[in-house]
Design a protein that fits this description.
The protein contains one helix and 45 strands. It is mainly β and 573 residues long. The longest helix is centred in the first third of the chain and has 8 residues.
């Protein structure tokens, strides 16, 4: 039931398809190829039930059509060289069947030049059961792309797709492990249609049916990507898979930075992703749509700062109920971007980017949580979003950054535990609450350790300069410490206050202000102005080193109840 191909007279270079087809169609179960033989083929062959062991042989594919299909059986230990010829279909395909094994297969030098996609290995979403893809390599896989013709320039290592629902929704499943992709990209890209060069891509058109509740139990493990054009993964509406141990590096300087490392795109749901590391030219680390994903242990460094370490939700698809844990992001334009996201939870993260957290509220009602975060960049709440923050620190926020360390521009926030240290002369915590918006704060510590000269109204450590009437400030406990003050003179009295509460209803349990150094511009430690409705402070402590500073509650403010007032040193009331 087995035979070595030398018995067909296959010595040296074999370039006759008829001999090759005789081998494949011999009816033998086990076929052994030879390392010393270079095979040349130019037409399709089908594997159905055989075990073909290449023993490290090279197979040069000189045609434009498909090389092989496999429905059952195994192929091991061989290299397929595409010879950089034009390919007009997927070089290889797994058909519906049971237990296919591809082990130690290398695909090299496939270059598509037509309007068709060039993906080395493809299979259907339906009926491919218990497959194993192990130790496969994909290198120098490219396709021409003029940036104009749709369908030209799509290229990658692996693709799973279908155009219709499968019989009885018989989803495919299997394992893909120890896979490496290198130099996979579109070439000669123009400025028109943006094409996809994804190492591993799944695709489903929602117009063909709703598959959001189905599971494809495909397990990815140990995936390495080097110089991929656009993404390592694009999940395209497929749900229920897992990814473990991804390493991604992009440093070739060719074309644009990668669009993202992992894209849980479309209506993809319930992906479990863990242990993703990488460094290089990334626009994004993760782009996430769909619902109920779990992502953990991510460490990514962008060498070309642009967009987001994590983008939650996209222009076309929001995301829901995503859990992210243990993240370290460096060098991105912004680390966490809640673009269109509901009930996403990010915990145990470190961030060193231009911007730590940014929010949007595209669909309305967005609400997300960030916990146990340490970073050196800003938090921005915008577009009416709601953000919950628990036990986070902004460490040594530098004077060089133009944003405020914490900047609520439009939205509401619930903070339990926030420590900010900064060398900036600008506002450290800025709350521009709009009508009906709420800032609910507790256990807040704001410490200014250094400050350059600034001649603006931005001196406040805590500021509500841009808040409007009808907003609500609720503080459980807040401590404000100035260890350095700007030497410049602000243009108005509001800018002289370390704490400015303005144009809001406020309820404060405990507020402590301590000014440790002489101020460049003598002014109030606390100014309250324009506040309406209920105004209450349970305990107010103010300690300033310079005489003439004070606490000022202006006449335009509704009457304020202060139950306990402690003024020390040079503070005047």
């Amino acid at each position: 039931d087995h035979m070595n191909v030398k018995q067909w007279g296959m010595f040296g270079t074999v370039n006759e398809d008829s001999i090759w087809q005789d081998v494949i169609n011999s009816g033998l179960v086990n076929i052994f190829l030879n390392r010393s033989v270079n095979y040349e083929i130019n037409s399709l062959f089908a594997v159905d039930g055989q075990v073909i062991k290449g023993n490290g042989c090279n197979i040069l594919f000189t045609g434009a059509n498909q090389m092989f299909t496999i429905a059952n059986g195994e192929m091991r230990d061989m290299t397929f060289d595409g010879n950089d010829d034009e390919h007009t279909t997927y070089p290889s395909e797994i058909l519906a069947g049971e237990g296919v094994v591809l082990d130690n297969i290398k695909y090299e030098n496939f270059h598509g030049k037509s309007t068709f996609s060039t993906y080395c290995l493809k299979w259907e979403m339906w009926g491919v059961h218990n497959f194993t893809i192990n130790r496969c390599r994909f290198k120098n896989i490219t396709q021409d792309d003029n940036g104009v013709i749709v369908g030209r320039g799509f290229v990658g290592a692996i693709r799973m797709s279908s155009t219709a629902l499968g019989t009885d929704n018989d989803t495919s499943y299997g394992k893909i492990s120890n896979v490496r992709g290198e130099n996979i990209y579109s070439v000669n890209a123009g400025a028109g249609v943006v094409q996809d060069s994804d190492m591993i891509r799944f695709f489903w058109d929602p117009a063909n049916g709703d598959i959001s509740d189905m599971n494809w139990d495909i397990k990815f493990n140990k995936i390495t990507a080097v110089n991929i054009g656009k993404r390592v993964f694009k999940t395209g509406g497929i749900s229920g898979c897992s990814i473990k141990a991804v390493r991604c590096y992009k440093n070739d300087g060719l074309y644009d930075a990668m669009f993202s490392v992992v894209s849980l795109s479309g209506d993809s749901n319930r992906w479990d992703v863990t242990d993703v590391k990488g460094e290089g030219e990334f626009q994004r680390g993760f782009e996430i749509s769909g619902r109920d994903h779990q992502i953990s242990h991510v460490g990514l460094t962008a060498t070309t700062p642009d967009l987001s370490g994590f983008q939650f939700g996209s222009v076309a698809f929001p995301c829901f109920n995503v859990i992210v844990d243990n993240v370290n992001l460096k060098g991105f334009g912004q680390s966490l971007y809640f673009y269109d996201s509901f009930n996403t939870q990010v915990s145990n993260y470190q961030s060193d980017s231009n911007l730590g957290i940014n929010t949007n509220n595209t669909s309305g009602g967005n609400s997300n949580t960030v916990s146990n975060g340490v970073h050196k960049d800003a938090i921005i709440i915008d577009q009416g979003a709601l953000l919950f923050i628990n036990n986070c620190r902004i460490v040594d926020y530098p004077a060089s950054l133009t944003a405020y360390a914490f900047d609520l521009r439009s939205g509401s926030v619930n903070v339990r535990g926030l420590n900010i240290t900064s060398n900036s002369a600008k506002r450290m915590m800025n709350l521009a609450l709009q009508d009906g918006q709420v800032a609910d704060l507790d256990d807040i510590s704001l410490i200014r350790n250094g400050a350059a000269d600034v001649i603006t109204n931005d001196h406040n450590i805590f500021s509500m300069e841009d808040a409007v009437v009808g907003s609500l400030l609720r503080i459980g406990k807040m401590k404000v410490i100035s260890n350095a003050n700007p030497a410049g003179t602000p243009s108005g009295s509001d800018g002289r206050a370390n704490v400015l509460i303005k144009n809001c209803n406020y309820i404060i349990d405990k507020l402590s202000i301590r000014d440790e150094v002489a101020r460049g511009a003598v002014g109030n430690e606390l100014i309250i102005t324009g506040a309406q409705g209920r105004c209450y402070i349970g305990e107010l402590k103010v300690n300033a080193e310079v005489a003439g500073t004070g606490v000022s509650i202006l006449a335009a403010t509704s009457p304020t109840v202060i139950e306990s007032l402690k003024l020390a040193n040079g503070v005047n009331n």
